[in-house]
User: What shape does this take?
Amino acid sequence: MRFVFLLCALLSLTVLAEEQRFTLAAGLIDEAVTVQVALPESYRHSDSFHYPLLLVLDGSTQFHHVASSVGFLSTYAIVPEMIVVGISTRDRLKYFTPTEPEDFAARAGKADVYNRFIAEELLPTLSERYRLAPYRMIFGHSLAGLYSSYQALGPASSFNAAIAISPSLWWDDGALITDYDKYQTRERKAPMRWFLSMASEPGEMAQAFDAMLQKLETKKPSKLQVFNARFARETHDSTPLIGNVEGLKAIFSGWNAVPQVDAMSLQQLQAFYRGKTAEYGYTFPLSAHQFNVYGLKAAYEGQTAWGVAILEQGVEKFARSEILWDSLATAYTLNQQLDKAMAASIKALQLARLHGSVFLEEIMAQNRALEQKLSQP
Assistant: This one.
């Protein structure tokens, strides 16, 4: 409990992401697409660290709450730090549906065209502008949830994980379900993780959801791990808020190396994430928030040398992070290395002033406390 209280005091700090926006002229879908981007606060603290991507469909309505959830959860190392990108299309029916029923001739069934837009226009543009890691997720609700489900099952996905909130699996008499057998035998090169949920929707929405779960339970697709949930107290409109949080937590269940107050050494942490490679198809390097959380946990739980080693590695990787330098000062103090603690605190204070940091007062407080300790005979 001592650690939990102190960590909350030091990290009551869900860090705000930097938001950017630009317009992409998308030739394949003949639209000018508004692209919203939330960069982790730690993005500016390194020139070399690459971040997983979470693509949010219907970004005009869904982007901000998803980006906020990622910011909060990643602060405590529950999920990785990610670059969150929101996009919208004015013709959802055409591009989010994988089949073209006769009643919707020329108005639907162009999901594969949207796949090409993402793979050939959007992702290359994002990769040119930002440091993207080769791990990608997609989030969709309702008709966009049908499209994200198609990414989990279909033949031409650019993603490693998909979140589908109240997906419109009823589309075209449940075409994704009817065609399940061909998707079930699809050969995947890398693991895929899929979270799908249903709220209190009645009728064909719920029936199609149940039918898909039955298919998944009967014939599990190769290299596809499925998570599902029901939110009976939510409506179709309210469910994305809880759904995105639960989806993220499900996709990354077991990903947090130290979810409680236990501690690991730096070597143990690195080995833990190497061990996750087969599960995710990607080796996650330690991010700034992970260095911070795991280093402080070790220091406060009596493994001060471990905490120092973790945080020293953290400031080596994220040299411009006032948070990591301040936490390193804390670890040095607990390890009775007051001169090093003061040097780290001075560095944290310089960076906090340079960045106009929201943590300036807390960093100044530790700096003053160290000055008093060092001035004592």
